[in-house]
Amino acid sequence: MAEVSIVSCEQGPVSVTFTDRGEGRVHLLLHGGGGSATVTAFADRLAETSGVRVVVPIHPGFDGTDRPEQLTSIADLAGLYAALLDELDLRRVTVIGNSIGGWIAAELGLLVPQSVSRIVLVDAVGIEVPGHPVADFFSLTPAQVAEFSYADPRRFGTDPATLSPDRLAVMKANREALSVYGGSTMTDATLSGGSVSLHDGASGNNTVSAAGDTAASTGKPSSVVRVNSRKDAPTMRSPWAMLTNRKTPTDSDSPMANIA
Predict the structure, then answer these.
(1) Which of 26, 35, 46, 209 could form a cystine bridge with 243, CB 3.0-4.6 A?
(2) How does 51-66 read in b/e, with b if 16+ C-beta sit within 10 Å?
(3) CA separation, residue 195 to residues 28, 116, 198, 234 (Å)
(4) Where along the chain do its domains lie?
């Protein structure tokens, strides 16, 4: 069941809708442009099989929620979720972000490293990688988005012709919110640069890992955002190191296997 919390952040009080499942080490799971439904099964499986607590907020403006006019950027969302962690008294949180959720996760880790212990970026946008531009998402049809995103578009893609008017309205609002938060390029040049050193998660230091493919995309990598090798990945202006060049995750070998 979804919960609602009124969170006080720099933009003022904001209503945040979220689900909270499981018990144990806290994981904050941040969805991408498709809305919270895209990570529901992910959250359920993580909580059920790994013995952890999974908190999944809905970015304001997605899935029928309201977006305050003053909430206009990924940095604003990171600030909001930093305040949510305080509101829920959550510390040493593992943050998992898909697509723009990964961008928010990176910003959140930079903003409140004392609250974030580990970050997992799954097909994350936000970080500019020379030679690997993000696809012009807003020029793509739903069929093209599925073709770019999945190894098997027929299995995971969505045909708008089969959806109800209410669902189409939610998808339209999600797209509009995505445009506001991410802009047309969905990247931020200030996220990369500087030097970092590798930290061992077992020692209790902060770590970040990056998976270039979604768990659903077995067989070929996502081509909305593509990083081909470790040398292509920029360092982040943070105490984390990027771990890239991972093989395509499967059900038994996914980012989830290493973060519970």
Answers:
(1) 209
(2) ebbbbbbbbbbbbebe
(3) 26, 20, 10, 9
(4) 3-248
pTM of the shown model? 0.78
Provide the sign of the torsion angle of the four alpha carbons 122, 124, 129, 132, taken in this order: positive
Non-local (6+) Cβ contacts of 73 within 8 A are 181
- CATH code given to domain 3-248: 3.40.50.1820
Bridging pattern class, strands 53-57 and 116-122: unpaired
Estimate to the nearest angstrom the gap between the alpha carbon of 19 and the chain centroid: 16
Quick check: 149 pLDDT over 70?
yes
Q: Which tops the pLDDT comparison, 223 or 120?
A: 120
Q: Which two tokens stand for residue 210?
A: 């990056």
pLDDT digits (tens, 9 = 90+) for 186-236: 888 777 653 332 233 334 455 555 444 333 333 344 545 554 434 444 444
